[in-house]
Amino acid sequence: MTIAALLALAVVGCGVGFLSGLVGIGGGVLIVPFLYFFYGHAEWSGVVVPESLHATMAHATSLFIIVPTAVVGTLTYARARLVAWKAVWPIAFASLVAAALGAMVASRVPQELLRLGFGFFLVFTAANLVAPRPQSATGRMRLGIPVVAVTGGLVGLLSALLGVGGGLVAIPLLMYVVRINVEQVAATSLAIVVVAATSGSVTYVLAGLGAPGLPSGSFGYVHMAAALPMLPGAMLAARLGARANQRMDPRHLRWAFAALFVVLGVRLVMTNLGSLLTR
Fold first, then answer.
1. How far is 142 from 178, CA to CA, in rounded Å?
2. Closest Cα partner for 214 from 206, 204, 222, 203?
3. Residue 252: exposed, middle, or buried by beta-carbon count in 10 A (0-12, 13-18, 19+)?
4. Residues 127, 133: Cα–Cα separation, whole Å
5. Of 109, 129, 178, 208, which residue is the least packed, with the fewest Cβ within 10 Å?
């Protein structure tokens, strides 16, 4: 791996942590597009990966990075008694099963389809960033089997398939379906993300053991050589982002990131949709 690539990984890690703390979204929306570029430009990164593995490794590595970052955030929220543990355990179990299934599916579907799905997810993320923030639905918390299965299943499946934490999916479901108090939504979502991302990461590791074409420094489909340089910055910058959130109006940054995600998302959709249609 080149020095330039190592420096870029460290910088992206800082950006991921800061963005996560500042606007409350998972780092996968930045990690995955960067890793697409990283694996697609071997002459710059010094890492040669078969094109058929680019998306799978990007999503697996992103999930691995999200786990410790989400753990740090969850512990912080837990100290403030903001995590609704009663909802976390059943939903997290459902997400664990769904994430394992999603990771197995992701390792077997066409790479263009994974990138196409992530492109749509980026556009969805952009819309979510600039949408009004309504209060959660009022009423008693609902934790029946159908509610738990749907909430945990969607969070886990999309988390593993797209290499993201799943918080953008979990938050509206926790607010309007499970009916968790708005003060506890972000904290509870993050705790569920820890389980879903861990399950997806482990499944990607097991599914990729012995797979041909993996670069050095890989543990299954998780590229540890790319993940480790990102982790310190991601974990440290998350606190800085949270502090900045308390001192400034993040609306302008939300719009800036939304514009970036729309550009990246539309580009991924157009490029990969064309590739799929010409197969």
1. 5
2. 222
3. exposed
4. 12
5. 109
pLDDT tens-digit profile, the chain (279 residues): 899 999 999 999 988 888 766 655 667 788 888 999 999 999 999 999 998 899 899 999 999 998 888 888 788 888 888 889 999 999 999 999 999 998 888 888 887 888 888 888 778 878 877 777 666 565 678 888 889 999 999 888 888 888 877 777 787 788 888 888 877 887 888 888 888 889 999 999 999 998 999 999 999 999 999 999 999 988 888 777 766 655 666 567 677 767 877 887 888 888 778 777 776
Q: In 24-53, which residue ranges form alpha helices assigned H by DSSP?
A: 28-40, 42-45
Query: How far does the chain reach from its first CA to its final CA, in angstroms?
Result: 33
Distances 193 to 36, 42, 65, 148, 201 between C-alpha atoms, Å: 23, 32, 12, 14, 12
The answer to whether 217 touches 224, Cβ cutoff 8 Å, is: yes
DSSP assigned state of 110: -
Residues 6+ apart with CB under 8 A from 161: 59, 102, 103, 105, 106, 114, 117
Spatial separation of the C-alpha atoms in residues 91 and 78, rounded to whole Å = 17
Q: Angle at which helices 224-247 and 54-79 pack, to 10 degrees?
A: 40
Residues 6+ apart with CB under 8 A from 72: 235, 238
Instruction: Give the residue from 10, 12, 16, 70 showing the smallest Cα distance to 240.
Output: 16
State the alpha helices, DSSP H only, in 42-110: 42-45, 54-79, 85-106
